[in-house]
């Protein structure tokens, strides 16, 4: 779950909905050779499903006792996050082995620095073995995997910048990501034209919650909305 504090509310966006936006952005990408990539279908699938393991967790968001608000994708306890990524890497392995390989590669990118921390070695060992088997099964060269994975990482970062309401510019794989005036600017601009996407979200009051039941009741009453996300060229700073 992505949790964004607003003046009087918490804006909540599920990880699968954020990932869907990443896939939608990548589906309109017209630069860098992506339209002609022979594995484009798997790249788009992996972008849309790279957070599929969060489906179950985000269907019933957990209460963060320390802060009195919903857990987000960073604060959820390690044991539960490990389960999320084991589930997410494996879900499509039979039908979409290359997309599953890209999802596993994403998890390794996120958590590779946790080697040696309690609980994480088991996940990393599993992901490395899983990725090695899928690499052999698909026959893709490791260099090709790395080139393809950059698309997943880039789309993920653009979508996160929008969904998490980030304010600081960032760079990823030769693309500048510039939040400005309620939009996300990209330089160089890869789409055919400025495009507005819609992301499902909910808002709940920004107050201290007393437990899972108290949080769950507020979530059940919250109506689903759509947040507009505009992707445009980087305009000159004023």
Written description of the protein model:
45% of the residues lie in helices and 20% in strands. The chain has eight helices and nine strands. The strands form two sheets. It has a seven-stranded mixed sheet. It has a two-stranded antiparallel ribbon with strand order 3-4. Strand 1 (2-5) and strand 2 form a beta hairpin. The longest helix is centred in the middle third of the chain and has 22 residues, at 142-163.
SS strand fraction: 15-25%
Order of helices and strands: EEHHHEEHHHHEEEEHE
Q: Report the strand count.
A: 9
Name the helicity range. Answer: 40-55%
Structural class: alpha+beta
Return residue spans where pLDDT drops below 50 for at least 5 consecutive residues: none
Could you give a short account of the major beta sheet?
Answer: 7 strands, mixed
Shape annotation: globular
Mean pLDDT: 96
Number of helices: 8
How far the N terminus sits from the C terminus, by CA atoms, comes to: 34 Å
- Reading side by side through the largest sheet, how are the strands ordered? 1-2-8-9-7-6-5
Radius of gyration: 18 Å
Furnish the topology, listing elements before pairings:
Elements: E1 2-5, E2 9-13, H1 15-27, H2 40-49, H3 55-59, E3 63-64, E4 69-70, H4 78-90, H5 97-111, H6 120-138, H7 142-163, E5 170-172, E6 175-180, E7 183-187, E8 195-205, H8 212-221, E9 225-233
Parallel strand pairs: 7-9
Antiparallel strand pairs: 1-2, 2-8, 3-4, 5-6, 6-7, 8-9
Helix pairs in contact: 1-2, 1-7, 2-5, 2-7, 4-5, 4-6, 5-6, 5-7
């Amino acid at each position: 779950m992505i949790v964004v504090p607003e003046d009087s509310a918490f804006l909540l966006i599920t990880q699968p909905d954020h990932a869907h936006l990443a896939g939608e952005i990548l589906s309109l990408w017209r630069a860098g050779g992506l339209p002609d990539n022979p594995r484009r279908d798997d790249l788009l699938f992996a972008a849309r499903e790279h957070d599929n393991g969060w489906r179950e967790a985000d269907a019933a968001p957990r209460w963060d006792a320390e802060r009195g608000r919903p857990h987000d994708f960073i604060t959820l306890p390690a044991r539960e996050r490990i389960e999320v990524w084991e589930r997410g890497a494996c879900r499509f392995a039979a039908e979409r082995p290359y997309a599953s390989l890209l999802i596993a590669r994403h998890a390794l990118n996120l958590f590779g620095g946790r080697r040696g921390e309690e609980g994480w070695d088991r996940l990393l060992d599993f992901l490395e073995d899983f990725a090695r088997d899928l690499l052999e099964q698909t026959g893709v060269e490791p260099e090709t995997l790395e080139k393809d994975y950059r698309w997943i990482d880039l789309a993920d970062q653009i979508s996160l910048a929008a969904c998490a309401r980030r304010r600081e510019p960032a760079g990823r794989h030769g693309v500048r990501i510039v939040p400005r005036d309620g939009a996300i600017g990209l330089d160089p601009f890869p789409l055919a034209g400025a495009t507005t996407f819609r992301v499902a979200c909910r808002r709940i009051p920004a107050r201290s919650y007393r437990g899972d039941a108290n949080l769950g009741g507020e979530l059940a009453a919250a109506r689903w909305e759509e947040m507009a996300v505009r992707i445009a060229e980087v305009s000159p700073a004023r």
